[in-house]
């Protein structure tokens, strides 16, 4: 019994030691010894791409030295759901992951050589893993579900940033990007263009901004005022753009507010639009709910 107990303890210690070694290898971002490609890259489609780069099959073993030879790969439209394993591509400088199903970017966070990254058309919401990749020069994030880009504020080497068709409201982070010369942010909800408009040498495009405000409840017999619907940046630099180009439902503009005096027709939304040439336009949409208004109780007079 004692011998069996010692054997079990020995096996447990061996397993613990092996697990610890694997954890250390993973934490250090390096493969120790050899490991099969499909063990390193859990997504089968990504494993196929990496195997192809190395002229191997996905069941072949690979060393860290071999992974270090991969500086670029193209994996667009590959139905990739996980990029786990990419953290071991220590010399990766350029990668195209356009049109996949990627959510988690954490495997990218320690890639110190990465300069060009295409993540268009994925399912990305969180950008924090990119916050310290200060080597990035080109970052493409079109057609995701990103609402907050503040994590990018330290990417001071960025030259090109594409964030079209997301849910972005604030782009103040670009104020820190002194080398940025191209920003595309069409189809978002941005109201403050000041950070990029201050940069005369920068080229930007921010068309079709649509901002949905929180619904409000109003009395259809009373007036409603939208306070300060001013496009910051555009209006400061171009006073002629202070006035909205269009106002729905008979609203009247009197700087700096818009007033709707009669909502008896009970429109579901009221809207105002701003435009600045072919670079920027914004529509603000205010959904409305209506209070029930009691009808006046008029008593019929009886004939005497």
TrEMBL record:
UniProt KW keywords: Leucine-rich repeat, Repeat, Secreted, Signal
Keyword Oxidoreductase recorded: no
Domain Internalin Ig-like inter-repeat region: 242-281
Cell compartments where the protein resides: Secreted
Gene3D superfamilies documented for this protein: 2.60.40.1220, Ribonuclease Inhibitor (3.80.10.10)
Signal peptide residues on this chain, from the entry's feature table: 1-27
Top-level division of the source organism's lineage: Bacteria
Alphabetical list of InterPro entries matching this protein: Cu-Rt/internalin_Ig-like (IPR014755), Inl_IR (IPR012569), Internalin_N (IPR024634), Leu-rich_rpt (IPR001611), Leu-rich_rpt_4 (IPR025875), LRR_dom_sf (IPR032675), SDS22/Internalin_LRR (IPR050836)
The keyword Nucleotide-binding appears for this protein: no
GO cellular component labels: extracellular region
Principal location: secreted
Internalin N-terminal domain segment(s): 30-68
Family designation: Belongs to the internalin family.
Protein's name in the database: Uncharacterized protein
Organism: Listeria seeligeri
């Amino acid at each position: 019994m004692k011998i069996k107990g010692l054997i079990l303890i020995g096996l447990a210690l061996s397993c613990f030691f092996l697990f610890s070694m694997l954890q250390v290898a993973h934490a250090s971002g390096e493969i120790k010894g050899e490991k099969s490609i499909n063990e390193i890259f859990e997504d089968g489609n990504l494993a196929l791409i990496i195997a192809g780069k190395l002229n191997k099959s996905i069941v072949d073993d690979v060393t860290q030295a071999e992974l270090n030879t991969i500086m670029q790969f193209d994996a667009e439209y590959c139905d990739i759901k996980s990029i786990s394993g990419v953290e071991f591509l220590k010399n990766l400088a350029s990668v195209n992951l356009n049109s996949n199903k990627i959510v988690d970017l954490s495997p990218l966070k320690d890639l110190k050589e990465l300069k060009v990254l295409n993540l268009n058309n994925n399912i990305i919401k969180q950008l924090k893993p990119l916050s310290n990749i200060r080597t990035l020069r080109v970052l493409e994030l079109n057609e995701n579900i990103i609402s907050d880009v503040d994590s990018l504020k330290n990417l001071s080497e960025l030259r090109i940033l594409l964030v079209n068709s997301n849910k972005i409201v604030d782009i103040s982070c670009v104020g820190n990007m002194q080398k940025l010369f191209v920003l595309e942010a069409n189809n978002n909800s941005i109201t403050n263009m000041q950070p990029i408009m201050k940069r005369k040498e920068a080229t930007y495009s921010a068309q079709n901004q649509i901002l949905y405000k929180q619904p409000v409840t109003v009395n259809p017999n009373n007036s409603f005022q939208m306070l300060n619907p001013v496009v910051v940046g555009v209006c400061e630099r171009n006073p002629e753009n202070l006035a909205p180009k269009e106002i729905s439902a008979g609203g009247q503009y009197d700087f700096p507010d818009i007033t709707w005096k009669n909502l008896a027709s009970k429109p579901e939304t009221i809207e105002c639009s701003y435009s600045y040439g072919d670079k920027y336009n914004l529509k603000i949409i205010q959904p409305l709910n209506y209070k029930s208004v009691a009808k006046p109780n008029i008593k019929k007079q009886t004939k005497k």
